[in-house]
Amino acid sequence: xxxxxxxxxxxxxxxxxxxxxxxxxxxxxxxxxxxxxxxxxxxxxxxxxxxxxxxxxxxxxxxxxxxxxxxxxxxxxxxxxxxxxxxxxxxxxxxxxxxxxxxxxxxxxxxxxxxxxxxxxxxxxxxxxxxxxxxxxxxxxxxxxxxxxxxxxxxxxxxxxxxxxxxxxxxxxxxxxxxxxxxxxxxxxxxxxxxxxxxxxxxxxxxxxxxxxxxxxxxxxxxxxxxxxxxxxxxxxxxxxxxxxxxxxxxxxx
Length: 254
Description:
Elements: E1 10-14, H1 19-30, E2 34-38, H2 42-52, E3 59-61, H3 72-83, E4 88-91, H4 106-133, E5 138-143, H5 156-176, E6 181-188, H6 197-200, H7 203-212, H8 221-232, E7 243-246
Parallel strand pairs: 1-2, 1-4, 2-3, 4-5, 5-6, 6-7
C-alpha cells in the first residue's frame, strides 16, 4: 500500500469553499479521499462541490455556521448519521480582525476567538467522541499560523487565537493518543488567499513579505494542502502533537 495515499478515507474540511480549506479539499480528493465541505454559505459550497466532483471522488456539502458553537455537537452528529463518520478532520475555517489592541472592539476579539479557537475545540472533541464510540482511529489537522510563534502589531485577537490552536493541538494529541487519534497542526506563513487580499494589494506590504521570506514569495493554498495530505496519510503514523511551520523559511531567519 502507498503510505502517502488516503484512498477510501472520508475527510471533513471546514472553510472548504475557498482559500486554504479549498486547497486542502482538492489535495485530499486527488490523493483518494472523499470530502465533506463545511462553510456558512450553502450556495457557494454547492458551487465549489460541483467543480470538485470533476476529480472523480464523492464531495458532500454540510453548510453550518461554526460560530454557533453550542450547536456544533448536534450538527456534527446529524452530519455523521446522514453522510458517514469522517476519518480526518481539517480545521481550516478562520477569520481575522486587525487594529491596535487599545482601540479594538471587544466584539471583534470575541468573534475571532470563537471561530478560530472555540469552534476548533468543540468540533474536534465531537469528532473524537464519535471515533472513540466506534473504536476507530482518526486524524485532526488544525491550521495554525506564523502567529502561533510570533506576532505583528495590530493582530492581537488573531495572534491569541492561533497561539491557542498550537497549544490545543498538543493537549488533544496527548489526551487522544491512546485512542489512535493523532492531532497535528500546519502553521502557514503568508499565503495568497482572500483573507490576505488587503495585504497583498498593499505594494509596501507585498514587497516586505517577498523580501522577508527566504523563498521570496507568498505561499499558495497548495503549499499548505500537500503537507495536510501527508498528515492525513499512514506515512505520518508516528507524528502527533506537532506544529509544523510551512512558511518558506520565515522563522529560520530574522
